[in-house]
Design goal:
Blueprint (H helix, E strand, L loop, with lengths): L1 E10 L2 E11 L4 E5 L6 H9 L6 E6 L2 E2 L5 H7 L1 E4 L11 H12 L5 H11 L1 H5 L10 H13 L5 E4 L8 H17 L3 E6 L2 H7 L2 E6 L2 E7 H16 L3
Parallel strand pairs: 3-8, 3-9, 6-7, 7-8
Antiparallel strand pairs: 1-2, 1-4, 4-5, 9-10
The structure holds adenosine-5'-triphosphate (ATP).
Keywords: Amino-acid transport, ATP-binding, Nucleotide-binding, Transport
Protein name: Branched-chain amino acid transport system ATP-binding protein
InterPro entries: AAA+_ATPase, ABC_transporter-like_ATP-bd, ABC_transporter-like_CS, BCAA_Transport_ATP-bd_LivF, P-loop_NTPase
């Protein structure tokens, strides 16, 4: 369980996240839904520690991680796949996976993890020796997801995993995310601009506007409110 209590993130005078509280349950997928600039990335960055929170608390399974450094949070099991496709473009697919593995120094066997990555995404196996920069957007997202999850962290933050991808690839990526969450009873928090897309994957969702939670609910409640939510908070989808 990931809990965020009264979190505040400011950049100088800009209050990007304002008094946000949420909980993301193990084995469930929780979505942060909001338009461009609503504060989704800032909230995720504060959870993983790459952007400091001004105030508030972050707890993982009851443990307060608010004061831990980003690499210490990673060791507690918080993985963050950031927006903007953070991969090494000049390195091969496999080199990217190796680098991400060693950076986190997890227990267990890299060989086994790699086999699992390639069985989840056979196209990455086919392109294992290709430079990551030559992959399509969908393949890059598969690589990013694999880099964030190959060591099987209990808490995964995914910033807009569907961004810019064709619907068929989004479906594939969402299937992977669902399986990842269910298989290990893991926490998945993902951000999404479009409520309709979030509904395809999320068990629970929080809608953000101007840094504040303006609505939250389970899949049914989101579904019932999707038309109103889209016009009120998200722009038409
Ligand atoms: P997007 O979908 O564009 O990533 P978002 O919902 O993730 O949007 P944030 O990126 O968290 O929103 O931005 C929230 C607010 O904070 C916006 O007003 C944005 O301009 C501002 N902001 C974000 N990062 C910075 C920064 N490094 N310095 C100053 N302001 C920032």
């Amino acid at each position: 369980m990931l809990e965020v209590r009264n979190l505040q993130v400011s950049y100088g005078a800009i209050e990007a996240v304002r008094d946000v509280s949420l909980s993301a349950r193990s084995g469930h997928i929780t979505a942060l839904i909001g338009a461009n600039g609503a504060g989704k990335s800032s909230l995720m960055r504060a959870i993983s520690g790459v952007t400091p929170a001004t105030s508030g608390q972050i707890l993982v399974n009851g443990r307060d991680i608010t004061r831990l450094k980003p690499h210490e949070r990673a060791r507690v099991g918080v993985a963050h796949a950031m927006e903007g496709r953070r991969i090494l473009h000049q390195h091969t697919v496999e080199e990217n996976l190796v680098t991400a593995w060693h950076f986190r120094k997890p227990p267990g066997s890299f060989k086994q993890a790699l086999e699992k990555v390639y069985s989840n995404f056979p196209v990455l196996a086919e392109r294992r020796r290709a430079k990551a920069g030559t992959l399509s957007g969908g393949q890059q997202q598969m690589l990013i997801l694999s880099m964030a999850t190959q060591h099987e962290p209990p808490v995964v933050l995914l910033d807009e995993p569907s961004l810019g991808l064709a619907p068929i690839i989004v479906t594939q990526i969402f299937e992977y995310i669902k399986a990842y969450s269910a298989e290990g009873n893991r926490v998945v928090l993902l951000s999404e601009q479009m409520a309709t897309l979030a509904l395809k994957v999320a068990d629970y969702g929080y809608v953000l506007k101007h840094g504040q939670v303006v609505f939250d609910g389970d899949r049914k409640q989101l579904n019932d409110g999707v038309a109103d939510l889209s016009s009120a908070y998200l722009g038409t989808t």
